[in-house]
Amino acid sequence: MTADANNVSTRSDKDFPRGIPPPRTFSDPLEHRAFLKFRLAQAYRIFAKYGYDEGVAGHITVRDPIKSDCYWVNPWGVHFKLMQPELLLLVDHQGNIQEKESGPSRYLNRAAYMIHSAVHEARPDILCAAHSHTIHAKAFSALGVPLDPITQDSCAFYKDHSLYSEFRGIVEDHEEGLAIASALGSNKVC
Fold first, then answer.
1. Which residues pair with 130 in a beta bridge?
2. Is 97 within 8 Å of 67 (Cβ atoms)?
3. C-alpha–C-alpha distance, residues 96 and 155, integer Å
């Protein structure tokens, strides 16, 4: 989805096939923020339901519609299946937790910050980013090859994904986050 300065979809009803509703639009930025936080918490719980979680590894972030230099992320140590909107942290690109807006647990996952701040900064067109450690993805990534378009699921990323082959372990420095964002480029997936 493309976004304007307020992260509201710029596509109109005519841009969507019949029967598929367009994304919601909001005139109130606080209502938009609450909606995005609710959907982000839902996404975490969906990831948990389908096994896209592994301990404290993996993250999903969404850009804030009010503070566009900030994004919402889960606090460190709260299981995906327990995520609620009021628990989320609002973090800027320097890793500063926004005290007034954030949930009660102020533990920021450093790897989440390093990866997602770099991606959101490099790609202002991205509203949401997800990073997961599924068993199947980890096994497939060990092959170091792009996805073949052999299923409808993989066709969604045909010629629109990249490989990150420089992995050096847990992302603990800014350079690693920048390298991941660079490898993503203009693709949907890395």
1. 60
2. no
3. 38
CA dihedral 139, 148, 23, 21 (to 10 degrees): -120
**108, amino acid identity:** L
Q: How far apart are CA 96 and CA 78, in angstroms?
A: 19
Cα radius of gyration (the chain):
17
Three-state DSSP class for 75?
coil
The structure tokens listed for 67 are 């503070």
Separation of CA 66 from chain center: 17
41 in Cβ contact with 74 (< 8 Å): no
Strand, helix or coil at 92? strand
Ramachandran class of 170: left when φ > 0, alpha when ψ lies in -120 to 50, beta otherwise: beta
Per-residue model confidence as pLDDT tens digits over 14-53 = 666 777 888 889 999 999 999 999 999 999 999 999 988 8
Structure tokens at 140: 């497939």
49 vs 59: CA distance, rounded Å: 15
- Nearest C-alpha neighbor of 61 from the set 2, 7, 122, 115: 115
Per-residue pLDDT tens digits for 95-147: 999 999 999 998 998 888 888 888 888 899 989 999 888 888 888 888 888 88
H helix and E strand count, the chain = 5, 4
Which ranges of 142-173 does DSSP label H, i.e. alpha helix? 152-155
